[in-house]
Design a protein that fits this description.
Elements: H1 2-23, E1 27-33, H2 39-49, E2 53-56, H3 57-66, H4 73-82, H5 88-105, E3 111-115, H6 121-131, E4 136-144, H7 147-161, H8 168-191, E5 195-199, H9 204-218
Parallel strand pairs: 1-3, 1-4, 2-3, 4-5
The protein binds P1-(adenosine-5'-P5-(uridine-5')pentaphosphate and magnesium ion.
Length: 219
Amino acid sequence: MFGRLFANVSQRVPSLLERVSQIMKPQVVFVLGGPGAGKGTQCSKIVESYNYTHLSAGDLLRAERAREGSEDRHVIETCIKEGKIVPVDITINLLRKAMEETMQQDEKKFRFLIDGFPRNEDNLQGWTRVMDGKADVKFVLFFDCGNEVCINRCIERGKSSGRIDDNWESLEKRIQTYLQSTRPIIELYEKHGKVRTIDASRSVDEVFADVKAVLDKEG
Ligand code: UP5
Ligand code: MG
């Protein structure tokens, strides 16, 4: 009899834990759009008003490239300069680590804006392999902006950003990669009704007003 009672108790404990981990499961919004579409600018504004942590895959890669002793710095440097996409094992490890560290420091911080990822099929497969069942992708926030506007913004920023890819040569390649590899990923999510499209060619405040409308509706 006691055996059965204990069996029931021990069965109930994991189910409770399961429910807690379900509540705390990372909630992810992928933020996509062309180079200079305003992903970073809008994410910074979102974190001021909403309970999200902003993780820019590009920023994480640039930090890894600058880290003394990093084995991946040359691969990252070449890819960024050439507008190519870094192999996903590198990016997904940086993202996973950043998410874990954030949640370890504060368990209430389980909502993430993942900016600039996934950019291609390889990225998507890597995400599924590592994160499937461990995080929920709520939707994709897509900053839709014409190529010319995107290029002009990056060239303008290049006067002071110090980024090795804010120049005409790299930008041409970044746009090509975006059109060939990233747009199909956005279209894939679109087919599943998961894309919230924002016209990102307007002023920062006008764009943010639309972002707020999406987040207020979706949470
Ligand atoms: N600006 C912003 N919004 C504006 C507005 N509404 N009106 C007028 N100006 C506006 O903005 C860009 C510039 O425009 C800024 O000067 C801003 O003030 C102004 P920003 O918010 O920085 O745009 P964002 O979309 O973030 O542009 P970014 O250049 O960061 O986009 P990319 O996607 O090109 O860059 P990212 O850093 O994500 O990636 C860089 C490279 O890293 C990639 O090319 C790739 O090589 C590599 N990478 C990977 O390999 N894998 C990844 O998962 C991620 C990156
Ligand atoms: Mg950015």
